[in-house]
Design goal:
The complex is a heterodimer of chains A (about 260) and B (about 190).
Chain A (H helix, E strand, L loop, with lengths): L6 H38 L1 H4 L5 E2 L2 H6 L8 E5 L2 E5 L4 E4 L2 E5 L6 E4 L4 E5 L2 E5 L5 E5 L9 E7 L2 E6 L7 E6 L4 E4 L4 H7 L4 E2 L2 H10 L5 E2 H10 L4 H29 L1
Antiparallel strand pairs in A: 1-15, 2-3, 2-14, 3-4, 4-5, 6-7, 7-8, 8-9, 10-11, 11-12, 12-13
Helix pairs in contact in A: 1-6, 1-7
Chain B lengths: L1 H28 L2 E2 L3 H9 L5 E6 L2 H11 L7 E7 L2 E9 L4 E9 L2 E10 L10 H4 L24 H28 L3
Classes of the chains: A alpha+beta (about 260), B alpha+beta (about 190).
């Protein structure tokens, strides 16, 4: 026959169970609690620590936040790389030579120079990449110019987006004049130079010159503190930690009261 | 009496509202291209046709132009039209963030016309009004490469006014260079 447990031993068992769970909860939450305490302290003193002025732009972080990190592309002409910096500059092997509103849609070269078609105009450059002048809309560049192509050392501009609407015109770089031509747009399209990814060295240099999107350290800490950094799962996790902290407080209070 | 006061207040409020809306729509409409380069040159020299020319920027010209604009000058050449002692220039200068395209006509070393051909900023478009641009008529270039006339500014368009002042002075300088150059090259 089993002995009936005395009320005193029941109480001791209850205290033991309570302390056991208190320890378990404490052990499973203490790392997160310390992190929340430190990150909370940092956020409270963010202006003093200037966390909003520290910008992070590592590729994985930018991708994590959903920003697209496009691979920088350019045109290799005469041994030099021509590309756009993402702002308003045309770069030749890393040096800003002219203003160029994105996109840089085409590059063509004659024996006399290089022609770079940007959204704001056609930039005329020397063969070694020096900016000569810009032929813009105000000078008579058609608004929907799509490409610049060189055929037999003559410069042609193609306007219109669809092949059926396309019109080609010959461009005189000395007089900045345009004359109609009967060359088929498809003929020019076939020989147009296409943009290719820049070499890694230039990509790295471009990133230093024009860092692109970045996230402030304050935002990252705030998102880590609230769990949003890891999406909906992270928020639920922090909610769970909050709940466990409530239980931890209650078990701690109960243990203290029962010991008295 | 109260009714009259109420009506007066209502009318005043409506008038103020209308004025604000008009001003807002004006500032939006200020952006745009008003005249193309070829049209500007044709208008300036009509009924004649001026000769299109190119001024190549030597290091000396470039240095002086940079001093006038207070920034480095990009490009190796500048296009202009000339007929005798009259030259017309289309130059660009950034007001606050966007370039303002300005046509300047110079004859006998004084400004004959300043015209804003394209204005791309969201504010400060008042510089395109003839009431403002007529201040430049008759202005010449002083020895310190500043305009000989005082140009009254426009509240809210300070940077655009500075840009037009710089371009007007630059056009006078370029004009002096080409006139001097053509005088030097003339057969004796």
């Amino acid at each position: 026959m089993r002995n009936k447990p005395s009320p005193n031993s029941k109480s001791v068992n209850g205290i033991k169970t309570n302390i056991l769970w208190h320890r378990r909860l404490g052990l499973s939450t203490f790392v997160v609690l310390i992190f929340l305490a430190i990150s909370g302290f940092a956020l409270n003193h963010s202006p003093g620590l200037k966390l909003n002025q520290i910008n992070l732009s590592s590729n994985w972080l930018i991708s994590w936040y959903g920003f697209e990190v496009p691979v920088a592309e350019g045109f290799k002409v005469g041994g030099k790389w021509f590309y756009q910096d993402g702002n308003k500059a045309l770069l030749v092997d890393g040096d800003s030579v002219a203003s160029c509103t994105a996109p840089l849609s085409a590059i063509a070269q004659t024996t006399g120079g290089v022609f770079a078609l940007c959204a704001d105009g056609l930039n005329l450059l020397t063969s070694d990449g020096q900016f000569v002048e810009q032929f813009g809309a105000i000078d008579g560049l058609p608004a929907n110019t799509q490409a610049v192509t060189v055929l037999d050392d003559r410069i042609y501009l193609t306007t219109g987006s669809a092949t059926i609407d396309s019109v080609t015109m010959e461009f005189n770089a000395d007089s900045l004049g345009l004359t109609a031509t009967d060359i088929a747009p498809q003929t020019l399209k076939d020989i147009q130079q296409v943009a290719v990814p820049l070499p890694k060295l230039l990509q790295k240099k471009l990133k230093q010159q024009s860092p692109g999107p970045s996230i402030s350290l304050e935002t990252v800490i705030l998102d880590l503190h609230s769990g949003r950094f890891f999406g909906q799962f992270g928020v639920l996790f922090i909610d769970l930690i909050g709940l466990l902290v409530c239980i931890l407080s209650i078990t701690g209070l109960m243990a203290w009261m029962k010991r008295r | 009496m109260l009714n009259k006061l109420y009506r007066a207040a209502l009318v005043t409020t409506a008038a103020a509202f209308f004025a604000v809306i008009s001003l807002a729509s004006f500032s939006v409409n200020a952006k745009g291209i008003y005249q193309s380069g070829p049209d500007f040159f044709a208008e300036v020299f009509a009924p004649l046709q001026a000769e299109p020319k190119v001024l190549w920027l030597t290091p000396e010209i470039r240095a002086q132009a940079a001093a006038i604009l207070d920034r480095p000058v990009r490009g190796l050449r500048i296009r202009y039209h000339q007929s005798n002692n009259k030259t017309a220039w289309i130059l660009e200068e950034i007001g606050k963030e966007m370039p303002i395209t300005i046509g300047v006509v110079v004859e006998d070393d004084v400004i004959q016309q300043v015209k804003i051909l394209a204005y791309r900023e969201s504010r400060g478009g008042e510089v395109r009004y003839p009431a403002y641009t007529k201040q430049y008529l008759g202005a010449s270039l002083q020895e310190d490469y500043r305009l000989s006339q005082n140009i009254d500014g426009i509240t809210g368009a300070t940077l655009s006014v500075w840009a037009v002042n710089k371009v007007a002075a630059l056009a006078l300088y370029y004009h002096a260079v080409v006139i001097q150059s053509s005088a030097t090259n003339q057969p004796k």
